[in-house]
């Protein structure tokens, strides 16, 4: 169950959490015509800091542009509203969910003329794939569902409708006792997971899938930067599931998942079967970075 906060920002005003409702004929509810973000605020050195707020707001606007809708607020208004949402709810650290959606007033697939609505909620959210997963690594299986073909769904946009594919895959994996689903692209190469990007490490080389069928993750970009700064060779290159089976290490990245190690894929142990040295070092560094504890990355912490 989501841990309720006090207020939700809706179209420019704060409303009580329990009153943040929409009409049942909301276009987005029927057709998935919404774009959203997932952002995290952490208790950092000098107070609460939102991690890479600018990049998240840019991606929200990019997603809206790809879907073909115009956000009825400016980027600075949305950024300000996000900060205020954290503030009014007195949350020291939290997950933040802005959503821009087609509202009610018109049915049918033609979205022209449908009102565009915005909301921003924030709540406390614990370890996405469990505390144990963070410490020991998770188990995943290759999904029977493919990741979107790039001309069927726009994967660079965080469009709500895209996530039905993730729900199908996640449900299948969880019902079979796994923590997460590994999704392949329509050509059979590794793509990403249901709500995370994926990395492997082999002989100290860090590899992640290229920006084709994936959501270009902000955590992914962060880890690429940190790994390069640690003098690792980083490749953005396609790889197959068997290359993953024989990798030394594997981990997932995402705002909610942060950096989650993977210990097993398709019932095969990955590397030593627990978080490897590169994974551990990146995970530790990432957690310091989001909390504003490393000077060279402090520009990513946006204090509220
Ligand atoms: N791929 C997908 C499909 C995805 O949904 C996410 C974020 C990522 C990669 C990683 O992106 P980034 O957060 O920018 O590093 N998934 C969000 C969904 C969580 C949810 O269950 O809702 C998130 O982590 O906020």
What would you call the structural class?
Answer: alpha+beta
- Judging from the principal axes of the Cα atoms, what is the shape? globular
The largest β sheet comes out as: 9 strands, mixed
CATH topology category name of the largest domain: D-amino Acid Aminotransferase, Chain A, domain 2
Distance between the termini: 27 Å
The kinds of small molecule bound in this structure are: ligand PPE
Number of helices: 8
| CATH C-level class of the largest domain | Alpha Beta
The stretches of 5 or more residues where confidence is low (pLDDT under 50) are none
Helix content range of the residues, please?
25-40%
Question: From N to C, what is the helix and strand string?
Answer: EEHEEEHHEEHEHEEEEHEHEEEHE
Number of individual domains: 2
**What is the annotated CATH architecture of the largest domain?**
Alpha-Beta Barrel
Mean pLDDT across all amino acids: 97
E-strand count? 17
**Strand residue content:** 25-35%
**Radius of gyration (Å):** 19 Å
**Superfamily (CATH H level) name of the largest domain:** D-amino Acid Aminotransferase, subunit A, domain 2
Would you write up a description of this structure?
This protein is an alpha+beta fold and 304 residues long. The protein folds into two domains: 7-123, D-amino Acid Aminotransferase, Chain A, domain 1 (2-Layer Sandwich), CATH 3.30.470.10; 131-290, D-amino Acid Aminotransferase, subunit A, domain 2 (D-amino Acid Aminotransferase, Chain A, domain 2, Alpha-Beta Barrel), CATH 3.20.10.10. It is 28% helix and 28% strand. The protein is built from eight helices and 17 strands. The strands form two sheets. Strands 8, 9, 10, 11, 12, 13, 14, 15 and 16 form a nine-stranded mixed sheet that branches. Strands 1, 2, 3, 4, 5, 6, 7 and 17 form an eight-stranded antiparallel sheet that branches. The chain is globular and about 55 Å long. The two termini are 27 Å apart. The mean pLDDT is 97. Bound molecules: ligand PPE. Ligand PPE is lined by residues 38, 192, 195-197, 215, 217-220, 253-257.
């Amino acid at each position: 169950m989501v841990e309720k906060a006090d207020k939700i920002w809706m179209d420019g005003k704060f409303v009580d959490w329990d009153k943040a409702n929409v009409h049942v004929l909301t276009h987005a509810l029927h057709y998935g015509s919404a774009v959203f973000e997932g952002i995290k605020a952490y208790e950092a050195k000098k107070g609460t800091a939102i991690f890479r707020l600018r990049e998240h707001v840019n991606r929200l606007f990019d997603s809206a542009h790809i879907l073909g809708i115009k956000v009825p607020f400016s980027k600075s208004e949305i950024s300000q509203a996000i900060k205020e949402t954290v503030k009014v709810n007195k949350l020291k650290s939290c997950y933040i969910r802005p959503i821009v959606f087609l509202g009610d007033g018109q049915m049918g697939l033609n979205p022209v003329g449908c009102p565009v609505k915005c909301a921003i909620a924030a709540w406390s959210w614990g370890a996405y794939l469990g505390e144990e997963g963070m410490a020991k690594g998770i188990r995943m299986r290759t999904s029977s569902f493919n990741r979107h073909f790039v001309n069927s769904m726009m994967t660079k946009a965080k469009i709500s409708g895209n996530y039905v594919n993730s729900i199908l895959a996640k449900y299948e994996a969880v019902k079979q006792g796994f923590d997460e689903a590994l999704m392949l692209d329509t050509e059979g190469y590794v793509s990403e997971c249901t709500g995370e990007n994926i990395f492997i490490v082999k002989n100290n080389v860090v590899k992640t899938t290229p920006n084709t069928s994936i959501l270009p993750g902000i955590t992914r970009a962060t880890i690429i930067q940190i790994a390069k700064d640690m003098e690792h060779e980083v490749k953005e290159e396609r790889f197959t599931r068997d290359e993953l089976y024989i990798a030394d290490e594997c981990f997932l990245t995402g705002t909610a998942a942060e950096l989650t190690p993977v210990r097993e894929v398709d019932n095969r142990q990955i590397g030593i079967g627990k978080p490897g040295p590169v994974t551990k070092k990146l995970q530790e560094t990432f957690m310091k970075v989001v909390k504003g504890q490393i000077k060279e990355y402090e520009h990513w912490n946006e204090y509220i």
